[in-house]
# Entry
Amino acid sequence: MSEVYTPIPLPWQRADWELIQRTRRSDRLPHALLLTGAEGLGKRHFADALAASLLCISPDSDGVSCGKCRGCDLLRAGTHPDLKYLRPDEPGKAIGIDTIREFTANESLTAQAGGYKIVIIEPADAMSRSAANSLLKTLEEPVDWTFIILITAQPGVLPATIRSRCRLLQMRLPARTVAEHWLSGEIGQKETSLLLALAAGAPLKARALADPGLLALRIKLLGEFAAIIEGKTDPVAVAANWTKSDPSLILGWYSSWLTDCLRLKTDPNCDDLINPDQREQLQSIGKSLEFKRLFGYIDDANQALLALSSQLNQQMMFESLLLPLSVRRSGNSG
# Structure
């Protein structure tokens, strides 16, 4: 018996799903949808479920694909001719104009299965300027039965002209109880609270962090961060080491450590920490950092995270963050 392909929205996506399905039933589905929200909320999952719904011959009353028809069979095999994914050739690279042109050149052709033609662009903020301009022409003159889904965690990076021609759907963080219930079903009860704290409440990100290797790496890098503050290691060497891992993950951790240091300097008994399991270590680190400078360090980390897609030299990026820490310690001042 073949596997049934029935992608359904995640529990916290039900309201967004119902909104889209009501729009579809009233024949008001937009020609382009901009899916935004923090990393780890399942934007791609939602897009896949929506594409399956639109390409399914017999979706159920909730709009969920049947998993049994010809369209669902093709989706399961990854060979549906009317669904295209436009992505960078390599992570961190741009989506070039040729990729967009290839799609737009065939856009006017009738869908091979006789229904929608769907293209999912992920991450949409990776489009080069020329690629975005090429897509804009399509958005300005939409073709019937063509549906474009743009996915991004950084909608502000997209040109305003692109954003204004899409229906915005911003996914929100789920309630803590909803996230914990889903996560415990995925990985068991172990450390769900800690993982969600580390993931800023994003369930899929929390599930990814459940990897014991990642948790061990976090502790190792926190130790290197502490060693820089104490003047016991070379920040340039640490920066080189940090480039070997996912920079967005490392920057997120780094920002969270600084944020917790700030919270603990404000209230030593703070119970709202991102890294509650490292309270003592972070309290010790915080004592060696000036209160006022912490705000600047956090802002620098967040700016680096936002600019990551255009960052040419990760070594220099990490050095610019870590070097100031080694020369601006404040002893026990606060």
Observations:
- Residues 330-334 have pLDDT under 50 and may be disordered.
- The first strand starts at residue 32 and ends at 36.
- The longest helix spans residues 247-266.
- Strands lie at 32-36, 83-86, 117-121, 146-152, 167-170.
